[in-house]
Amino acid sequence: MHPPAHHTTSGAQHAMRDLVRIGLVGVGIIAKTHLEVLAEQPRVTLAFTADPHRNEAVGFRGTKPPHYATLTHALTEHQPDLIVLATPTNTHADLVGEALTQSSARVLVEKPLVHDLDSLARLRSLQGTEDVHGRVFTAHHFAFSPEVRWAAQQIAEHPNWGPITAITSAFYDPYVLRGEQAFASYVSSWTDSGVNQLSMLARFVDLTALTSAHPMDAGASAWCTAAYRSRGTVGSARLRTSWRTGSSSKETVLIFGHSGVEIWIDHTAMTGFTARGDALLAAYGNDGKTPRKIAHYRPLHESLLSAQPDPVLSFDTAVTITELHHSTPVPGAGVE
Ligand SMILES: NC(=O)c1ccc[n+]([C@@H]2O[C@H](COP(=O)([O-])OP(=O)(O)OC[C@H]3O[C@@H](n4cnc5c(N)ncnc54)[C@H](O)[C@@H]3O)[C@@H](O)[C@H]2O)c1
Fold it and tell me: How far apart are alpha carbons 282 and 42 in whole angstroms?
């Protein structure tokens, strides 16, 4: 049974209702993954889609829900429980604002939550009238990747390894082939992948400051560093992002300098291993049957629809990551 529309504003402490009516805004590349994962959830129905550059409705479990050019039009005819925003990054802030003020739905916005700090301030200013904390969730999907969760579990189970003293992460995407379209959808490599790296690292350490940022290749690449705390110790993360390649490749190495342990995780293959010197301590693989994006978004949506969504999806986490992501670097910040 659908809940009455005026009861659908649910705080993070409440599970979504029995049936969840979803409005999908933006029917581009990542929307396909949302639709595939949501179609697996028997509780979910697709109420509408909205996208000004698409004319036809999309299929969802054998039905074709109504399609609109704009969210504004869709909300005059529907009261969804959840609005999924899968639109270009620089549209997120306006659409989150509209979803908050023109509906009572929860909002799952694609990462990054916003493209600049002014937009973040505008969303925060809605807190006086809207339940921004209870309703806005950001799809920090990399934090749900299986090798990331495996590494986090390894770390939790082995306090004897000591703090993570150094991190190196490199995220490459083949967006050079998409030319200007890549900048239109994702702004820059640091805007797009930096937030994936930071939300993934939030599983392992407490990020404290951006210590350097060097955009290069007109925004298609970057080299940034961030300070963090791990088990009471300060460390430094080196973050490389780039679109200058024909293939996707993403990996992260965590060094536990006090014990000599290293964790290597390959986000492209969703594999990992832990080693100390010549010894292999642990390894993680998968059966090869689940495509990477499904492996991220299936647990993400399961968590969002649960009674206690993972804090990595929360507005607070998005604020922390956005502020760090866009801060003016402070060399030596966080280092004692
Ligand atoms: N592609 C990926 O692998 C991926 C993965 C994770 C997150 N994301 C994020 O998802 C977002 C979208 O990425 P994408 O790759 O799907 O981009 P895309 O360009 O393929 O799709 C965006 C869609 O939004 C539509 N759109 C534009 N403005 C709109 C508006 N005002 N209202 C409704 N629809 C609108 C466009 O017509 C297009 O169909 C970006 O923020 C990106 O960072 C993408």
Answer: 36
Ligand 1 site, residue 25, Cβ cutoff 6 A: yes
Write the single-letter amino acid at 194: G
pLDDT tens digit sequence for 23-75: 999 999 999 999 999 999 999 999 999 999 998 999 999 999 999 999 999 99
Read off the pLDDT of residues 201-221 as tens digits, 9 standing for 90 and up. Answer: 999 999 999 999 999 999 999
pLDDT in tens, 109-137: 999 999 999 999 999 999 999 999 999 99
Where does the pLDDT of residue 336 fall: very low under 50, low under 70, confident under 90, or very high at 90 and above? low
Residue 129, CB half-sphere, CA atoms under 13 Å: how many? Answer: 10
For ligand 1, atom 19, name the residue with the nearest CA.
Answer: 185
Sign, CA torsion 137/139/142/147: positive
Nearest to 168 by CA among 94, 250, 91, 87: 250
Topology adopted by domain 142-288: Dihydrodipicolinate Reductase; domain 2 (3.30.360)
Residue 236, strand partner residues: 166, 227
Neighbours of 6 (CB within 10 A): 8
What is the rounded distance in angstroms from the CA atom of residue 185 to the CA atom of residue 164? 34
186 lines ligand 1 (CB under 6 A): yes
Among 148, 162, 168, 166, residue whose Cα is nearest residue 232: 162
Q: Is 174 in the pocket of ligand 1 (CB under 6 A)?
A: no
Ligand 1 mean position to 290 CA, how many Å?
23
The domain spans of the chain are: 5-139, 142-288
Question: Tokens 């049936």 sit at which residue?
Answer: 19
Q: Which residues pair with 171 in a beta bridge?
A: 241, 250
Task: Give the strand pairing for 136-139 and 166-172.
Answer: unpaired
Homologous superfamily, domain 5-139: NAD(P)-binding Rossmann-like Domain (3.40.50.720)
Reduced to 3 states (helix: H, G, I; strand: E, B; else coil), residue 34 is helix
Question: What residue type is 276 in one-letter code?
Answer: R
